[in-house]
Amino acid sequence: MADRDDSPNLQSAVREAWSKKSPLWLVGSGSKSFYGRFTQVGEVLDLSGHRGIVDYQPTELVITARAGTPLREIEETLYAQGQMLPFEPPSFDSGGTLGGAIAAGLSGPRRPWGGSPRDLLLGVKLLDGKGRILKFGGQVMKNVAGYDVSRLMAGALGTLGILLEVSVKVLPKPQEEIGIRFTASPDTAVTLVTRMLNEAMPITATCQNGDEYALRLACGAERVKQILSRYGISPGGQLPDTFWSEVRDHKHGFFSHQAPLWRLAVPPTAQLDFDEPVLSEWAGGQRWIYSHRSEEEMRSQAAQQGGHAMLFRGGDREGEVFHPLHPRIAELQQGLKRVFDPRGILNPGRLYTED
Amino acid sequence: MTADRQTLARAFQQMLPDDCVIYREEELVPFECDGLSAYRRIPLIVLLPTDEQQVAAILRYCLEREIPLVARGAGTGLSGGALPHEQGVLLSLARLNRILEINPNDRIARVQPGVRNLAVSEAAKPHGLYYAPDPSSQIACSIGGNMAENAGGVHCLKYGLTLHNVLQVTLITISGERLTLGTRALDGPGLDLLTLITGSEGMLGVVVEVVVKLLPIPERQQVALAAFDDIETAGDAVAAIIAQGILPAGLEMMDSLSIQAAEDFVHAGYPTDAAAILLCEVDGANEEVSDEIMRVRRILMASGATRVMTARDDQERMRFWAGRKNAFPAVGRLAPDYYCMDGTIPRNQLGKVLKRIGEMSQRYGLRCANVFHAGDGNLHPLILYDANQPGELEKAEHFGAEILELCVAVGGTITGEHGVGLEKIDQMCTQFQEDELEIFHAVKAVFDPLGLLNPGKAIPTLARCAEYGAMHVHAGKLRFPELERF
Predict the structure, then answer these.
(1) Which neighbouring-strand residues pair with B378?
(2) Closest alpha carbon to B268 in B332, B326, B224
(3) What is the mean pLDDT of chain B?
(4) CB atoms B242 and A61 under 8 Å
(5) CB of B335 within 8 A of CB of B367?
(6) Cross-chain residue pair B184–A306, CB shorter than 8 Å
(7) Is the CB of residue A71 less than 8 Å from the CB of residue A96?
(8) Tens digit of pLDDT for each residue in B373-429?
(9) Other Cβ atoms within 10 Å of B48 Cβ, number
């Protein structure tokens, strides 16, 4: 598909929806349609036709693109210049658009070291629920003029506005990255990796699956050897680069269980109590758990550790899939929804029953 | 003493310990301004609560009586964000100054807002950790103030701003409720309200607790200092370093006037005959730093540097940085007063912007020194003036406003890290359209419907913008005819 500015069509679709008070269900490439709540009401609005890179000068470390631009196109363009999207966004079913990646707010294995969509997002052009085109933030790294409305769009799942154009900070790709695997019990691995992180080892991804631990280091082979010997790790082999994209996109063998898939975000060394299959990333900060346990139990385990739990895939998707909010915070959130989308026509109910 | 002041003092004395209520005129004077001393106002009363229950009680009282309230950290802000309200309460968070927790395993610290920025790093040091954002005022400025301004520093190209280093805040709303935003994990559920609070200049609530990330202290830091005989060549060298895939921990530029001033002030060892210098710091493991600093050196030489020095030891490294970190006070010695600007521009516009600033400097007859966070495009022109000369302050303000409008015109912003406060409120009208300002006001109303928190700051009213627009036209001609207006 060719680059195209589809904003006039999108704007008139929103204006029509506004005047008819009829909700819109926003879809980019549809790769994350399993995510969030299923409340599909109203008409599908296809955002994938609004695509194309608008501005990219590698030395500015910023890329600006229309939101419907495929992630793959963005990544290929950046790789050609030795750069990358530092949040390493998942690309489920090999799809995904830049706008979808921002709207979902999900990050890949590099998250604790490279940042998240909200961290990297510098500015947006969006359509609000009245069909107005608004610009917040910009293309520069530092910008504190006005409230940081653009970053509020990251993870909002389209409930506050339709992203038209986004500017994202990019970074140089590490010159070398090597993945290795080794065997260690979860407890041993946590202690070891905490030590490595506190001593500033160049870790850029971790993945723990049972007694198997995988580590990605941003340095050359010689240095990797040094590091492994310093920490007494006997490597069980080098990992192919595809290992990390398989984990990121849930193509890794772990992600084939049949139970509902929960995602818990917790402090790295949080101790959780599960016998079910757990895959842990982000040095322990993100845990994937296949479990039939009650929603309450999953949530309270995460909350007790200072984190939160979401029902990532499967289960009851008409209930609350995201962690319930303090009533007053929910009220603030609903207030913000009314600011950006007074008639509640943009993806209503995708985040919470009452958003 | 006005009746209001007395009534308020009595009411708050029942709520707070006696020494937490300041209401005598002479004792109020130290609070009349923040780091932007050109603006001064005596508040009705100053309150110095010692715990968050007191903060909540104060906010509830203010809401009930509809009394404006301005929160203040260490008072080092440069945009008048903590300028008091004459009819309101100035709420100092200085006594909420405890470090509540350092957790080396999860690499986080939980602190109260009055804790000084540098104190966090000092407390984390025994664990080999530190708090990354390092604004130049870090000895004095507080974490609460850093939150309000989304403070940066010289290392934010690599390590980010306050926003990137805060996981969770506890906020007291205007109605006195205690809300926890964010989590102790890397993300939280629902809309990311934490991003909205960070940098909101005390307009949405009062932060009483912050959980920040700690990072491991790099094994080694090394800095290269390069001299250039032309400022644009220095700008190109910055682009060349980044094009080679290097992400320096710090990348700073100074022009000849600031080099000279810094050298005279701290004897940093700067080449005073240079038109510009670049300071490029790399950090990490010993081996990587050695490799990278050599690459930086080669790139700088290839980009036309007349001379490149690398610090021989940590002492020399600190001295190189001392020049940069003291650039503001150093330039301040050149004239009775200086006015510090804070625009951000796309880096490739640097040459053009500096040239235009040079022309303005001639036209206004005021000298201007430039220091530049070159890595992230954040420019700090320092306009020199003498407030005792009639009309000079006004001239400096016009000069500054023109610089900020130029920043917007080239695709940048009016403030990179100092905030809008009261100082840049008119330039907000240049940067944002009416619809966008309306959204800002509506966001504010969600948190603070009566507009009691820091009234008159950060976001201009539409009426004010209309007036500002008219003023431009009345002056005869638009200052930047190529600028879009509304």
Answers:
(1) B344, B373
(2) B326
(3) 93
(4) yes
(5) yes
(6) yes
(7) yes
(8) 998 899 999 999 999 999 999 999 999 999 999 999 999 999 999 999 999 999 999
(9) 21
**Residues paired with B96 in a beta bridge:** none
Task: Report which DSSP code applies to B176.
Answer: -
Q: Select from A140, A149, A269 the Cβ nearest to the Cβ of B344.
A: A140
ipTM over 0.95: yes
Q: What are phi and psi of A170, to 5 degrees?
A: -120, 165
What are phi and psi for residue A349, nearest 5 degrees? 80, 5
Q: Among residues B244, B159, B248, B430, which one has the least CA distance to residue A138?
A: B430
Contact between residue A347 and residue A163 where contact means Cβ atoms under 8 Å apart: no
Q: Give the H or E element holding residue A46.
A: strand A43-46
H-helix or E-strand containing B253?
A: strand B250-255
Residues, chain B: 486
Host H or E run for residue B469? helix B462-474
B277 in contact with A, Cβ within 8 Å: no
How many other CB atoms are there within 10 angstroms of residue A321's CB atom?
25
Distance between CA atoms of B112 and B208, rounded to whole angstroms?
6
Residue A226 CB neighbours (<10 A): 14
Do the beta carbons of residue A280 and residue A286 sit within 8 Å?
yes
Q: What letter would DSSP give residue B30?
A: G
CA-derived radius of gyration, chain B:
23
**Angle, in degrees to the nearest 10, between helices B392-409 and B350-364:** 160
Residues from chain B contacting residue A351 (CB–CB below 8 Å): 190-191
Set of chain A residues whose Cβ sits within 8 Å of the Cβ of B165: none
- Alpha-carbon distances of B209 from A71, B2, B51, rounded to whole Å: 38, 34, 10
Strand order in the sheet with A261-265: A238-239, A178-183, A212-217, A203-209, A278-281, A286-290, A261-265, A308-313
β-pairing, A278-281 vs A286-290, is: antiparallel
- The answer to whether residues B227 and B336 touch, using CB atoms and an 8 Å cutoff, is no
Q: What is the DSSP letter of A133?
A: E
d(CA A108, CA A248): 5
Cross-strand bridge partners of residue B45? B89
A287 contacts in chain B (CB < 8 Å): none
Could you tell me if A317 lies within 8 Å of chain B, comparing CB atoms?
no
Mean pLDDT along residues A273-292: 97
Say if CB B261 and CB B328 are below 8 A apart: no
Distance of CA A272 to the CA centre of its chain: 23
What counts of helices (H) and strands (E) characterise chain B? 17, 19
Percent of chain B residues past pLDDT 90, beyond the cut: 89
How many other CB atoms sit within 10 Å of the CB of residue B7?
A: 13
Which among A57, A135, A326 has CB closest to B436?
Answer: A135
**pTM of the predicted protein model:** 0.95
- Could A59 and B348 be called an inter-chain contact, meaning their C-beta atoms sit closer than 8 Å? yes
Phi, psi of A226 (to 5 degrees): -55, -50
- B273-281 mean pLDDT: 97
Q: What are phi and psi of A203, to 5 degrees?
A: -75, 135
**Pair B344, A142: CB distance under 8 Å:** yes
Put simply, whether B438 touches A (Cβ < 8 Å) is no
Dihedral Cα B13, B16, B22, B24, nearest 10 deg: 10
Among A208, A325, A319, smallest CA distance to A260 is for A319
Provide the mean pLDDT of chain A: 96
Is A200 close to B458, i.e. CB distance below 8 A? no
Query: pLDDT category, B76, cuts 50, 70, 90?
Result: very high
Task: Please give, rounded to a whole number of angstroms, the shortest distance from the CA of B301 to a CA of chain A.
Answer: 18
Residue of A281, A212, A58 lying closest to B185 (CA atoms): A281
- Contact residues, chain A, for B128 at CB < 8 Å: 198-199
